[in-house]
Every structure is written in structure tokens, then in C-alpha cells.
Amino acid sequence: MDNQKGQELIQKYLDGTATAEEKMLLNSWYNERSRTMTDEMPELDYEYWSAKISNQLPGGHKTISGWFKYSIAAAILIIAGAGFVFFKQYDKKINGITIAQSSHIRPGKKTATLTLANGKKITLSDAKNGELAEEAGISISKTKDGELVYEIEDSRSQANQMNTLTTAKGETYQVRLPDGSMVWLNAASSLIYPTSLNKGNIRKVELKGEGYFEIAKDKKRPFIVKTAQQEVTVLGTHFNISAYAEEKKTLTTLVEGSVKVSSTKDYKVLVPNQQSSTTGSDFSVETVEADEVIAWKNGLFIFNDESLESIMREISRWYDVEVVFDDVNKDKLLFGGVSRHDDILKVLKKIELTGGIHFKIEGRRIIIEK
Question: How many CB atoms lie within 10 A of CB 1?
Fold first, then answer.
């Protein structure tokens, strides 16, 4: 909905002539605008703001000749002529969670930034479907499903140009590499890889953060994933690597096939449902439920005896929020699951049900209290 239509709906609301359907449309329009707001606004309370705005209009008339800085629902009003800015923040509770200042925190979305070898950056959520670029004999395109695809157009090209796919907090993306391998990137992650991945004796990429890999089989040319603490070598298999710097441990989990995980001092070959853990000189392997580890790729949070601190780091990355612990036990172990597409209030409520903690939301800060 454009600004003109929005202004007309706001005027009808103030005049008391808006229908229930128009009020819902106005609220929906506000929620959509809120996604790009940089300031933190309180949630909508129509009756409260209707009375307040009526009192603040010049001369007591319900007319607006300027435009709201953001919207009536954000309760920030610029009144033409007077130039008066009015706002109010208030505390309330939703499902027992204190909302000091709501910013409509939404789940992450499918987008990423592709940085080409020449330095050009492409924001993939903004890019139209179809061909995005062509380099080193490779055509780079985006499908209607939002998948990034590389196709070989010139088999004679020997250029070894590097591309970087990066997700920020609140982002995830999927890419099909030049050799046909598939990679899913979790939030706050990056993958560096050559456009000529199917050339030479090995296929090598570098990962920061977390990625799930389905490697195209090639017995003659191993596929290597390098992280800060290890290298994983495969011929064709499915596995997950979590290598966030703030997690300290690098975890490699095998779903099917086999992988060789090499640290600075040792190496181990994993079988399905095994997970290696690399921390500096420490290197160990244990049996896990691989499906739980890759739940993020399938749109789920699954916590199995995971610490509160670790869980909140995941939530922070996915919802792009700051987390503050206020004298609570960060090592408290929790168990449960919830959709990554859920509103953050639902996710936090499920964690609260474990007992002993309480959440308070202030803008994009989540404060955890006893």
C-alpha cells in the first residue's frame, strides 16, 4: 500500500469512519513498514492513540495536512504547521513477557549478500530472478525459489576467481556451487569459494559460521571445507559444520556417508550420527542425533540439554537481537523445540515455561531475569 492510501486510511480512522476491515489493513500496512524502521516504536493501541491524537491536533480539528514520520500505529506524529512530535512508551505484558518497547521482532528471512571477485556486491533479496553475473566461464543466476545457482558456460576457462556468500544476523540462504554441491548457510555466516570449483585436483571452500553441505560425488577430486580450527575432507556426502567464533567449539556432524575431520594434531573419520568437537588442541567424537543438529536447516529450533547461554546465542543470530543476562544461571540446561518461523514471543514463552527465568523486551534487547 502506498503512502497516499495509507494517509487516507489514517484520516478515515481519525474521523471514525474506518471499517473493521480498513483498520486491519492499516495495522497490516504499519507492520510491513515497521520492518525497515531504525527507531524502536511501541505497539499499536488504536483507542489510546485516537484520543491522544485528537487532543494534540491544532484547534481541536481532526485534520492532518502533513505526513506521519512513520505511522499512526507507531504513535509518532508530525503535525504540519506546528511541527509537534509526540510519542509515548509504555510497558505491557504479552503471554507473561514484559514488553517495554516493542519493535515487532520478526524471524530471519531468506537473503544474503554475494560479493564477486571484482568487488561487486549483490543483495540477493533485492536482485531479480534470472542471471545476476557472468565470470570465469560461469553464469550466476537466482531461481524463483531464491536459490543461487552457478552453471558452467566455458569449460576452457581457468580463472580462479573467488566469490563470497555472506549472511548477516537474521538471514539464511542456499547456493548450488559450480560443481553441483548444495550449501545452506545459517545466520551470521560466510562461504568463500572459487568460481572454478570443478577445476584442478581438489574442491576447496572456506566457512565461517554454520553451513549444511550436500556434496556432489566425485571420487577423483575430494571436497574440502576449511574453518579456523580444522579441515573436513569428503568425496560426496551430507554433513553440518558449526564454526562460529563465539561458540569456541567447532562441531562437525555427519548425516550420511563419511567424512575425515583433521585438526592441527589429529584426524578422525566420522560415520553417520557422529559429531566431532574441535577446541584448540582438544579433539573428540561423540554420537548425536544428526536430525536435531540440522533442525535449523529445516526451519526448527531443537534444544536437547543445551545451555541457556548457547540457546540465546542462536536466538540472537536468527532474530537479530541483543541478549542481556541479569543475574541468571547461563548454564541452565534446557530441552524443547519450536519453529524458527514463530514470533519471538512464542519462542521466549516456551523457554520461560522451563521455570526460573523471565524475559523482558526493550526494543531489540532481550533481558533475562530471575
Answer: 14
CATH top class, domain 299-369:
alpha beta
61 versus 198: the higher-pLDDT residue is: 198
For residue 217, what is the DSSP state? P
Strands 358-363 and 365-369: antiparallel
Q: Where are the beta strands (DSSP E) in 153-188?
A: 162-167, 171-176, 182-185
The two beta strands, 171-176 and 189-194, are unpaired
The conformation of residue 95, written as its DSSP 8-state character, comes to T
> Domains of the chain: which residue ranges?
3-90, 109-293, 299-369
pLDDT in tens, 305-363: 899 999 999 999 999 999 999 989 999 888 888 899 988 988 898 888 876 789 998 88
Dihedral class, residue 292 (left if φ above 0, else alpha if ψ from -120 to 50, else beta): alpha
- Quick one: pLDDT at residue 261? 96
109-293 maps to which CATH number? Answer: 2.60.120.1440
- Cα(125)–Cα(74) distance, integer angstroms: 26
Q: What is the pLDDT of residues 50-93, one digit of tens each?
A: 444 444 443 444 433 333 333 343 333 322 222 222 223 334 55
Q: Give the residue, 364 or 64, on which the prediction is more confident.
A: 364
Q: Cell numbers of 202, please?
A: 581438489
Q: What is the pTM of this model?
A: 0.71
Cell of 342: 514463530
Kindly tell me if the per-residue pLDDT of 35 is higher than 80. no
Confidence at residue 324, expressed as pLDDT on a 0 to 100 scale: 95
Cα(176)–Cα(157) distance, integer angstroms:
19
Angle subtended by helix axes 308-319 and 344-352, to nearest 10: 170
